[in-house]
Amino acid sequence: MSYDALIAHARQTQALAEVAGRLGWDQETVMPRGAAGQRAEEMAAMEQVLHARRSDPQLGDWLAAVTPADEVEAAQVREIRRAFDRATRVPTDLAARIARVTSLAQGDWAAARAADDFAAFAPRLAEVVALKREEAAALASGGDLYDALLQDYEPGATAADLEAMFGALRPRLVALRDRILGAPQPPALTGTFPEAAQLEMARELAELFGYDLSRGRIDTAVHPFSSGSGADVRITTRTDPADPFNCFYSTIHEVGHATYEQRVDPAYALSPIGRGASMGVHESQSRIYENQLARSPAFAKWLFGRMQAKFGGLGVDTAQEFARTVNRVTPGFIRTESDEVQYNLHVLLRFDLERALIAGDLQVADLEEAWNARFFKDFGVKVPKASLGVLQDVHWSVGLFGYFPTYTLGNVYAGCLYQAMAADLPDLEADLAIGDLTAALAWLRPRLQVHGALRDGAETLRHATGHPPTEGPLLDYLEAKFGALYGL
């Protein structure tokens, strides 16, 4: 009886959360700019309702009385208890204030990014940081503030553990980058890439990678994202007339997120385990789709033919050269456009800066200078404007502190998954060379995607691959792939 009551309450709460998520999707895609103030009030009102449901004292009574009958029920109860414990520590008025301020901050960030004016955004960001520090203090109960926020995205992870993993990644990544940059570089694409044609091909790629458009849609946004679960999972992408890869790989990345949500067991729909296991696991799906599969030399062969048919001349003569162009390593400024070798260095920069912000060791007023100094140290180039630096990502404006490290954790998880997939699928490269993702997608679903949040992040990977996650497979994959592409 207690379990049935818990699940009924949780399903209704999740249904309301999906409505709130749709408000966020609308704000990023089609909402009129003049509606920002009203939308902030709407988001705050929804958050108050959700917070009240998640912290309802009746949940505590049901949790105390429940005895799970099997693994699924135990996982559902685990997730409900986790949400209840966190919600009861955060005052309702604080949750509403965070929702209101971050909704306003999202618009302020977009305007400041367009104007390349961090100073205009800094006061609002300072509000967000102060509220997230207040929330972290309520959650941490005297413990580490950043660790408390990290639990929203990767339950069980600690900043210390991530720092150790990232410390192991950095030396080999930097060494590989330096060797690549010392080798002859492939050409960039040239040609004409109209927006309409890019979006047509983005749709083709989305369906090729398993995205069910009868339960989803593709729109454009400043910062690509995926939203929703189950029967309504939407993605966004963006276009650049000079760089179609931006559109295509952003789309494939978001499709990785979206198909994970679409492929969770329908029996778990609108329940606590009816979504991805963690943001690290979620990111593993977007990264293995985007990188190990879609940026593979084999798939590049297929993509080369499709792009020639769609756009004509590309400024690259052969499929082999095109594969190198797809995997160009250049010291660019934008994380989402970064190559595989340097991507994690972008994430490590953000991880260190946001930890300092939450700890109070770095003030928002000093953030742009700190960003630029760290970027020069890590990449050897000066940031010319804020939109290419501290204002490029939306995450901090919407309060997602603790989210950034899950991008690199997702790459680590993807490395482990791909190692296991390649061992099980001897014809994988031949399939990719003809644009056939059937076997790869069929491998992922029963081992990982269908289970949703049945297990936590690390255990989800252990179940899928047979061993605990470690950074070794990712580094080995990168060194082998780029060593072959660049003749190192």
From TrEMBL:
Give the first-level EC class, as a single word: hydrolase
Tell me where the signal peptide lies: none
Write down the InterPro entries for this protein, in alphabetical order.
Answer: Peptidase_M32_Taq
Reactions it catalyzes: Release of a C-terminal amino acid with broad specificity, except for -Pro
| EC nos | 3.4.17.19
Superkingdom as given in the UniProt entry: Bacteria
Which purpose does this protein serve, as stated in its record? Broad specificity carboxypetidase that releases amino acids sequentially from the C-terminus, including neutral, aromatic, polar and basic residues.
Write down what this protein is called: Metal-dependent carboxypeptidase
**Which organism does this sequence originate in?**
Meridianimarinicoccus marinus
Lineage from the top down? Bacteria, Pseudomonadati, Pseudomonadota, Alphaproteobacteria, Rhodobacterales
